[in-house]
From TrEMBL, chain A:
<dbReference type="Pfam" id="PF00005">
    <property type="entry name" value="ABC_tran"/>
</dbReference>
<keyword id="KW-0547">Nucleotide-binding</keyword>
<dbReference type="GO" id="GO:0005524">
    <property type="term" value="F:ATP binding"/>
</dbReference>
<dbReference type="InterPro" id="IPR003593">
    <property type="entry name" value="AAA+_ATPase"/>
</dbReference>
<dbReference type="InterPro" id="IPR003439">
    <property type="entry name" value="ABC_transporter-like_ATP-bd"/>
</dbReference>
<dbReference type="InterPro" id="IPR052156">
    <property type="entry name" value="BCAA_Transport_ATP-bd_LivF"/>
</dbReference>
<protein>
    <submittedName>
        <fullName>ABC transporter ATP-binding protein</fullName>
    </submittedName>
</protein>
<dbReference type="GO" id="GO:0016887">
    <property type="term" value="F:ATP hydrolysis activity"/>
</dbReference>
<keyword id="KW-0029">Amino-acid transport</keyword>
TrEMBL record, chain B:
<feature type="transmembrane region" description="Helical">
    <location>
        <begin position="218"/>
        <end position="241"/>
    </location>
</feature>
<feature type="transmembrane region" description="Helical">
    <location>
        <begin position="272"/>
        <end position="292"/>
    </location>
</feature>
<dbReference type="GO" id="GO:0015188">
    <property type="term" value="F:L-isoleucine transmembrane transporter activity"/>
</dbReference>
<feature type="transmembrane region" description="Helical">
    <location>
        <begin position="167"/>
        <end position="189"/>
    </location>
</feature>
<dbReference type="InterPro" id="IPR001851">
    <property type="entry name" value="ABC_transp_permease"/>
</dbReference>
<feature type="transmembrane region" description="Helical">
    <location>
        <begin position="111"/>
        <end position="132"/>
    </location>
</feature>
<feature type="transmembrane region" description="Helical">
    <location>
        <begin position="47"/>
        <end position="68"/>
    </location>
</feature>
<feature type="transmembrane region" description="Helical">
    <location>
        <begin position="74"/>
        <end position="99"/>
    </location>
</feature>
<dbReference type="GO" id="GO:0042941">
    <property type="term" value="P:D-alanine transmembrane transport"/>
</dbReference>
Length: 241, 330
């Protein structure tokens, strides 16, 4: 049934999510098509992270539905969604501090049994982030913020996801590092990765993505191609000023 | 005085290691569960006790069907320790499922889980007591002797300032089995995929689930391993000390927990080291307190001595000897 309903790769219909009694999402509608980069921008506390967490299953929506790749995943636990191919690079990177870089990468491929496939994926990650290869035995917690962000993205790639969701990858990083990371996101997308990017750094996110959504106090207030959003008066005043 | 103390050192070491190995394995059960759930599972000492009763029950059963006469006691021992480990492992998983998981799902405060574990502890004590009394008429059991062959460790002839130490073959069994358990656990945690998942869940449960790790399953595995090790150690206690009752898990559990804190709670190698250290210190105190205090205190005060050491260590190193989790735990 779900197959007929969803025209899109990922589709959220009227999602309402709560933290205890506090309502964080008030009926979010959003979709992502295969091969797109879609960005979700908004200010602090607007519901960006909650939207990602609702998709990955870290927050279970109270109402609404989430369809992914033809399946209803609304009430799935997180590990099941990860297994289906949804990778989330969490806000603040959340590297396992006392696992080595190698282990942090290996754990990304937890669901994969074949050692040769894991080794192959690791090589791919090193292709994007050569610096990780030099630090394999170092503990994750001892790396710099930029390196940790690379590791967090690398760890997500180890899952060989169908959808990569990034939660504020630019947070706390020097502009030059942010640029590097955005370049790599672009590159991954060119190689076919579908990406949902959450950012406070609206200008850069809108330049990178195909389409964008603007979220405000749990509601999507604007959506459209990024070229339009970049010239939209409201967006310019609120986020690009 | 010093000479007296030195003379008894070999015996102190033998007795202290026996006790310390037992503390070490039980301490691991506390530290593993704490590492993953930040829960002090007070029922763990009683899992240990249950293991010793399951072992005793198996032993009496196998003897009653005439099993012992035809089989060497080593085989018998391996059978009962495996059965006890599996039974207590399953029991631990069951307790987690029935008592702790529902609390976790509802995000209950940690204090509630702690109180629950104390409740489980009483339930286990009374259940074991009830069954033991029903079957034997007495809740204090004395196991038929096993591995009682005595050896003399002839250190005196090599180092004249030492006295000889004696030990039973059960000491060898306890040492070998605990060392096997400690090493296999260390390999499991540090070298296998599931061990890595366990460490990841301990460090960041939310993020671990993003890596397709079924966190509840990892928690079950943790409870199985910790409880099975604890139950197996109960059997070791049985063959080493002979007599058991349903309350042996309480004080031993407290001490094993102390050992875990001494080594740095959440740190598995720390728990191993803390357990062995505590066992040796306790036996040292038992042998020498009356000498040191000029008969003001006898060996009955050995526990005070052990806890004073703990308090001293924690004053100067609150995170325990090997602990470092406090800062990094986000």
């Amino acid at each position: 049934m779900a197959d007929e309903l969803s025209k899109h790769f990922l589709e959220l219909t009227h999602i309402e999510s709560f933290y205890g009694k506090i309502q964080a999402l008030q009926g979010v509608n959003l979709y992502v098509d295969k091969g797109e980069i879609v960005t979700l921008i908004g200010s602090n506390g607007a519901g960006k992270s909650t939207t990602l967490k609702s998709i990955s299953g870290q927050v279970t929506p109270k109402t609404g539905s989430i369809l992914f790749d033809g399946k209803d995943i609304t009430k799935n636990p997180t590990h099941v969604n990860a297994h289906l191919g949804i990778a989330q690079v969490p806000e603040g990177r959340r590297i396992f501090p006392r696992l080595s870089v190698r282990e942090n990468l290996q754990i990304g491929a937890f669901a994969e049994r074949s050692k040769s496939i894991i080794a192959e994926r690791m090589e791919r990650v090193f292709g994007y982030f050569p610096r990780l290869k030099e630090r394999l035995e170092q503990k994750g917690g001892t790396m710099s913020g930029g390196e940790q962000q690379m590791l967090a993205i690398g760890r997500a790639l180890m899952m060989k996801p169908k959808l990569l969701m990034l939660d504020e990858p630019s947070m706390g990083l020097a502009p030059i590092i942010v640029e590097q990371i955005f370049d790599i996101i672009k590159e991954m997308n060119k190689e076919g990765m579908t990406i949902l990017l959450v950012e406070q750094n609206a200008f850069q996110a809108l330049q990178l993505a195909d389409r964008g959504y603007v979220i405000q106090t749990g509601n999507i207030v604007l959506e459209g191609p990024c070229s339009e959003l970049l010239t939209n008066q409201q967006v310019r005043e609120a986020y690009l000023a | 005085m010093l000479q007296q103390i030195i003379q008894t050192l070999p015996q102190v070491l033998v007795d202290g290691l026996t006790l310390g190995f037992i503390y070490a394995v039980v301490a691991i059960g506390y530290t593993m569960v704490y590492g993953i759930l930040e829960l002090i599972n007070f029922a763990h000492g009683d899992i240990f006790m249950t293991g010793s009763f399951v072992g005793a029950g198996m032993l009496f059963f196998l003897l009653s069907i005439g099993f012992m006469s035809s089989v060497p006691s080593l085989i018998l021992f391996i059978i009962i320790i495996l059965v006890a480990a599996i039974v207590t492992g399953v029991l631990g998983v069951g307790i987690e499922r029935v008592a702790y998981r529902p609390l976790r799902r509802k995000n209950a405060p940690k204090l509630i889980a702690l109180i629950t574990s104390i409740g489980i502890s009483f339930i286990l004590e009374d259940a074991v007591r009830f069954i033991a009394e029903l079957k034997t008429g007495n809740y204090i059991l004395t196991a038929p002797p096993m591995f009682q062959h005595r050896f003399v460790l002839n250190v005196h002839s090599v180092f004249p300032f030492f006295n000889n130490a004696t030990f039973q073959s059960s000491f060898l069994v306890v040492s070998i089995v605990t060392i096997i358990m400690l090493i296999s656990l260390d390999i499991f945690v540090n070298r296998t995929k599931w061990g890595m998942a366990m460490r990841a869940v301990a460090q960041d449960r939310e993020t671990a689930s993003l890596m397709s790790i079924n966190v509840n399953r990892v928690i079950s595995v943790t409870f199985f391993i910790g409880s099975a090790l604890g139950g197996a150690t109960g059997v070791l206690f049985l063959i080493q000390y002979g007599t058991i009752d349903p309350y042996i898990g309480f004080i031993l559990g407290i001490k094993a927990f102390t050992a875990a804190v001494l080594g740095g709670i959440g740190n598995i190698r720390g728990a191993m080291f803390g357990g062995i250290l505590l066992g040796v210190l306790e036996m040292f105190a038992a042998a020498n307190l009356s000498i040191i205090t000029n008969n003001a205190m006898d060996s009955g005060y050995k526990d005070v001595f052990a806890f004073i050491i703990l308090i001293l260590v924690l004053i100067f190193k609150p995170e325990g000897l090997f602990g470092k989790a406090a800062v990094e735990k986000v």
